[in-house]
Amino acid sequence: MSSVLAPRPPARKSFRETQFEVREEAILDATNRLLAIKGYEPMSMDDIAAEVGVAKGSLYKHFESKDALVSAVMVRLLQRTRLALAELATLATARERLEGLLRWTLQERLAGAVPHLPSTSQALRDSLLGHRLYVDELLQLSDDVSALIRDAKREGSLNADLDDEFILYTFYARSCDPTLDFLRQGGSIPDARIVDQMVAACFNGIGAAAPAASQEARA
Amino acid sequence: MSSVLAPRPPARKSFRETQFEVREEAILDATNRLLAIKGYEPMSMDDIAAEVGVAKGSLYKHFESKDALVSAVMVRLLQRTRLALAELATLATARERLEGLLRWTLQERLAGAVPHLPSTSQALRDSLLGHRLYVDELLQLSDDVSALIRDAKREGSLNADLDDEFILYTFYARSCDPTLDFLRQGGSIPDARIVDQMVAACFNGIGAAAPAASQEARA
DNA sequence: GTCTATACTGAGATAGAC
DNA sequence: GTCTATCTCAGTATAGAC
Asked: Which of B92, B101, B159 is nearest to A215 (CA)?
């Protein structure tokens, strides 16, 4: 009673608070996992609850809705991505930083992370755009990547004929490219080789580097 | 009565039969449209019925389930794609035929067709793989495209360092690339230019054609 | 064959005991 | 805060009249 008005130091978290946060992380992890495997619509709150090992009702003490939960997963993913990008700042050229970011993203997906996936589901996209935090994070990341693209063009390491906006969206699309899942499921190409080829194809395409001379003779 | 045993010429279709087929086409068209807009799971049979202007129950006289209906849409799409590929046989090189097919697919999508979309939904992919006709068509198309890829490599017009399987899946992924939708929604790049850049980026990548000499000096 | 009406299921969300 | 039990609603599929 006497302590009610005493200013408590905000530093130390109670055991219960810690437990709560640990569980919340577990929920986010489980959702991320299921999202990567099943996709947005087919993943039910029952699925998540079972994966975490918690009652479905309890999920709603942490997140007010399925959309909010998924949104939180995506926000965390975007934050991590920006962090990874910040750590790539040591690389010399913008081109290297772009390649590094794509490589990082693909490796994350191989490790079970959900793709950035604005692509996957129209309904999900609409839902996400209603969440302020998500939109803010996405805009910040897009700003960072756009700046990289401009720098790389100035370096002369990106095709100047392509629009910046085109390159930005293409970059996102490569991060979410389903080719990764198809090839991994196929199983005939080792993971590292898949990533190498995807990065190479993003920047150099699937065509031969130099136009083949034999082609002219053929016609 | 007397005509019951007489062999009727199978040639002429009754008015009712024609009507039935016309309506079936309309159902497939509407489903295709909604599929492109909303995606598989969010699209309900009610939506389809409303779009066609027919009672929901009637849909089940044409297709035994939602899955079967969607499967029929995809089969039709694959057949059209193979037809388009056949018409590209007049082009001189395999590389040109590949480029032409990608271009054709992207233009179809601009015109409202659904992407080939094995990517979109995991649940849909599983469902489709249970439909014999779909799997057959997909295998045939894949065989055709794989042959093209081998030919193009022989021409020297595709990067020989990339696995054939990688190129095949990448080609599919480019056909379904969400970049198209993002850019179209953005509205700042004309449709024709979007397609041009997507085809160019698929074969030549987003990197500069020749490695910039200035880059060396920079480090 | 097409319509209206309805059965049935799955899933998001809430209520109330502990 | 977590659990069990339940509400509500949307969506697939079917039944039955015409």
From this structure: B92
Angle between helices A132-155 and A94-110 (to 10 degrees): 140
How much of chain B is helix, strand and coil, in % rounded to 5?
70, 0, 30
DSSP-assigned beta bridge partners for residue B158? A207
Task: Provide the shortest C-alpha distance from residue A200 to chain B (in Å).
Answer: 8
- Top CATH class, B65-207: mainly alpha
Q: Pick out the nucleotide with least CA–C1' distance to B66.
A: D12
Place of tokens 């979007």: B194
Burial class (CB in 10 A: 0-12, 13-18, 19+), B209: middle
pTM for the predicted model, two decimal places = 0.91
Length of chain A: 219
User: Residue A197, CB half-sphere, CA atoms under 13 Å: how many?
Assistant: 25
Q: If you measure CA to C1', which residue is closest to nucleotide C15?
A: A57
Residues with CB under 7 A from strand C: A 42-46, 56-57, 60, 64-67; B 16, 19-20, 23, 54-58, 61-62
Cβ contacts of A21 within 8 Å, gap of 6 or more: A13
What is the CATH number that goes with domain A67-206?
A: 1.10.357.10
Q: In which residue are the tokens 């009507």 written?
A: B19
Judged by CB atoms within 8 Å, which residues 10-69 of B form the interface with A?
Answer: 37-39, 41-42
Residue type, B175: S
The answer to whether B79 contacts chain A (CB < 8 Å) is no
Under DSSP, is residue A2 helix (H, G, I), strand (E, B) or coil? coil
CA distance A90 to chain B (A): 12
Query: pLDDT at position B211, please?
Result: 52
Nearest alpha carbon to residue A120 among A199, A202, A43, A68:
A43
Q: Which residues of chain A lie closer than 8 angstroms to B145, CB-CB?
A: none
Give the residues of chain A that fall short of pLDDT 70: 1-11, 118-119, 210-219
* Single-letter code of the amino acid located at B2: S
